[in-house]
Amino acid sequence: MRINLILLIIFSALAQFAQAQEILCVESQNNDVLLDWNPPVLPCGPFVSYEVWVSNDPTTAFALITTVINAAQTTFTHVNAFNIGDPLYYYIVYNYNCPGLPPVISAIATNSFGSFQPEISSLDVQAAGIEVCWEESEFIQTCGYVISYLLPNGLAQPFDTVFGITNTCYLDTFSNVADPDLVYTLTYLDCCDNLSQYNDIGYRLVSSAADQQGCNQLIAYEWDSYTNPYSLDFEYHISIQVNGGPVEVVDTLANNQIMFNFFDFIDQDEIRFRVEVIDENGMVRSNSPWLIDTAEIVQPPREFYIRTLTVTSPTQIDITFFVDSLAELRNLEIDTSKLGVNFDMVERYPSNLFPGLGDIYLPDTVSAIYNAARYYQIGSNDSCGDDHYSTIGRTMYIQAELFDFFQNKVLWNAFELENAMVNNYRLYRDYGAGFQLIETIPGGAIEYDYVDDISAYDNQRGTFCYKVEAEYLLTKPNGFVEALTSSSNEFCLEQRPSVYVPNAIAPNGINNEFKPFIVFGNPTNYNMLIFNRWGERIFESSSPNAGWFGDYNGSPVPTGGYPYLIRFTASDGTNIEKKGIVTLIR
């Protein structure tokens, strides 16, 4: 696992860094303490003495334990030092003959250096390697930091040294970030080549793994529970980067959670995952190497919606819908329902008929026979056996009924479509000259009816057809709005024939012919009979265009009342009968 791992303590460099120190080391030796120091590099005047002061509490008064009058003597052994306590704190007073200037006093050093276990504050996997960082040593005698691997047997194997008390990070460029046994530990190095203790729990990267679950459209991430040697109060931050975009912290998990499922991606996305250990102060203590995966999932539809539902003929309803191009589907099917629940499949199509998907048109040639509004959705199935469904819509069904004399009542249900808002309904009528717009009605109701006055069309054939068109705005999943229309069925209504007859005729005057006027009729089996007062038939015609001029067998009949009976079959199959008495005046 580790190659050429040696302790790189370079004594020339150590000596160089030591020049910047005053007290080089405070070393416990049995019951004694050995001090070693450097004098100031540029004293202000002639040497007088070194004073060594000690205390077992750095916040209380120090006691003078010796005065060294030999400038070359820079060590001192404090015999039986621990009789006054442990730990012990020392400083040196450097006395020089410098009139008007105070003596130089060193910083306080302590003998607890050798028993101290420093902490690694963070491990960070970077592109160039693993950055190992720690807090600056609190011991002034520190000259460097020894970076070690913590071996499985608990021993520390040094592999590099960082010199300088203020240098608190190291970039490990040759360790394998994927090595599950990679554990770091740190020791302090003083200027006398003494080492502190090291943490025998060690500091490790977070080892993580990814499990792509194609049929669940997710990536399941899992990592080893992090052992925090300095605090139990930490949490995991989950960072994700998709397709080189910004790195986002997508979740924060408690330290007893070691799994995270990521869904927010599509097939073939490049996804980078990382878990970070964050302590109670918000500091990053460790993290995992970036896991990089190309998503391999069975991509469900992300946009799947009906656009239009139009009844195009008495035997066909056309459905247009949209499926995004990334959807991986095996088939598409038309599903329909009377009430919007318990849909039944009408027809199924293999998806390879629609390469690239997008806008699709499918006809339903089965459901129009119900002569009623129908709910629709498009169903689909993928290779995982999962079903997917579009939005739901409902067709319009229009019908009409005879309402009053020369009036038809037209009725239809509201057009329904998820994420759509109907603005208007445009009502059309056809009396034989093609469909023409007769009214625009605002949307918002559930059911609609409209009374159509057809009195201006009494000279027409008597068949009036209607259809309605819904104008609506459809909000797509991407937020864009599309203006669309869908149309109902066509409903034709045969008008009830009306027969107008004169109540009197004057053969020698203007109204000299008795002939019925049939409105909205295309009569068949027509027959008109006229009788005299004795019940004798004096006139008969089988043509609605043939009238009676007040004669019988070519001779005028006298003034009086003459019963008539008119019978015919209307175009809708209704048998019509009209009878009465016409008065003849001479």
Properties at a glance:
586 residues, mainly beta, Immunoglobulin-like, 1 helix, 51% strand, rod-shaped
In short:
With 586 residues, the chain is mainly beta.
How does this model look, in words?
The structure is a single chain. This protein has 586 residues and is mostly beta strands. The protein folds into six domains: 23-106, Sandwich (Immunoglobulin-like); 113-204, Immunoglobulin-like; 208-294, Immunoglobulin-like; 304-393, Sandwich (Immunoglobulin-like), CATH 2.60.40; 398-494, Immunoglobulins (Immunoglobulin-like), CATH 2.60.40.10; 498-584, Sandwich (Immunoglobulin-like), CATH 2.60.40. The protein contains one helix and 49 strands. Strands 26, 27, 29, 30, 31 and 34 form a six-stranded antiparallel beta sheet that branches. Strands 3, 4, 6, 7 and 8 form a five-stranded antiparallel beta sheet that branches. β3 and β4 form a beta hairpin. It is rod-shaped and about 175 Å long.
Number of domains: 6
Number of helices: 1
Q: Mean of the pLDDT scores?
A: 90
Net shape:
rod-shaped
Q: Based on DSSP secondary structure assignment, what is the total number of beta strands?
A: 49
> What's the alpha carbon Rg, rounded to whole Å?
51 Å
> Distance between termini?
134 Å
CATH architecture of the largest domain: Sandwich
The CATH C-level class name of the largest domain = Mainly Beta
Approximately what portion of the residues adopt beta-strand conformation? Answer: over 45%
Structural class: mainly beta
Which blocks of ≥5 consecutive residues have pLDDT under 50? 1-21
Q: Which quaternary structure do these chains form?
A: single chain
Helix content: under 10%
Instruction: Give the CATH superfamily of the largest domain.
Output: Immunoglobulins
Major sheet characteristics: 6 strands, antiparallel
